[in-house]
Design brief:
Blueprint (H helix, E strand, L loop, with lengths): L2 E6 L3 H12 L4 E7 L2 H11 L3 E5 L7 H11 L4 E6 L4 H9 L4 E4 L3 H13 L7 H11 L3 H5 L4 H11 L4 H8 L3 H15 L4 H15 L1
Parallel strand pairs: 1-2, 1-3, 3-4, 4-5
Keywords: DNA-binding, Phosphoprotein
Protein name: Two component transcriptional regulator, LuxR family
InterPro entries: CheY-like_superfamily, NreC/VraR/RcsB-like_REC, Sig_transdc_resp-reg_C-effctor, Sig_transdc_resp-reg_receiver, Tscrpt_reg_LuxR_C, WalR-like
Length: 211
């Protein structure tokens, strides 16, 4: 049975090249192509492809935000990221969100088909040199990352680490749950993480190093 694949990239020439490559590959059906992240999210929702190949950085909605939504809504699609470059923090966040594949654009034409075949079998395509960046990022001094937070973001983060719910945090700081959620979104983005557990781990490590 053919793998149903969606491709999203805001570079028209690359998008056309990938569409032509996959369209000529046995075992793959290209069910949609788009240069818009917002449109890609809608196509994933409506077409339910098995695999979505997404540009990490698109002007309207990037691949990371799409992957978060896919995970939150439980859509059964495996996500492969394409990017010109990926920092250790980006790789770490993608891995924490369950990305199925990582590809640099320079090598996409040569390796994408093999990547999709592996991902289609339920495997992950994670080049060792990219995973090594994530390991290095995770080993960095957490204090440096936490120093980028505003006083309010740090206050909210500390309450998260004490086990407070968003509702309890809102009551404690005199805010609303919606505002707390926005602050936490900014915290996650700055720290390159995606969960309360990881946030708590960073704070515990930082406190241990201060003792």
């Amino acid at each position: 049975m053919n793998q149903r694949v969606l491709v999203a990239d805001d570079h028209p020439l690359l998008l056309r090249g990938l569409e032509d490559l996959l369209g000529a590959t046995p075992g793959i059906d290209v069910v949609g192509v788009t240069g818009s992240g917002v449109r890609a999210l809608g196509l994933i929702r409506d077409l339910r492809p098995e695999i979505a190949v997404l540009d990490l950085m698109m002007p309207d909605l990037g691949g990371m935000a799409i992957l978060r939504t896919v995970q939150e809504r439980g859509w059964p699609v495996r996500v492969v990221f394409l990017s010109a470059t990926m920092s250790g923090r980006q790789v770490a966040e993608a891995l924490s969100l369950g990305v199925s594949g990582l590809l640099l654009k320079d090598f996409a034409a040569e390796t994408l088909v093999n990547c999709l075949r592996e991902v289609g079998k339920g495997e992950r395509w994670l080049p060792e040199e990219m995973v090594a960046r994530a390991r290095q990022e995770r080993g960095n001094d957490p204090g440096r990352a936490l120093a980028t937070l505003t006083p309010r973001e740090r206050e909210i983060s500390e309450l998260v680490c004490r086990g407070y719910s968003n509702k309890a945090i809102a009551a404690a700081v005199g805010s609303t749950e919606g505002t707390v959620s926005i602050h936490l979104h900014h915290v996650y983005r700055k720290l390159g993480i995606s969960s309360r557990t990881t946030l708590a781990t960073l704070f515990v490590r930082h406190q241990a190093e201060q003792e």
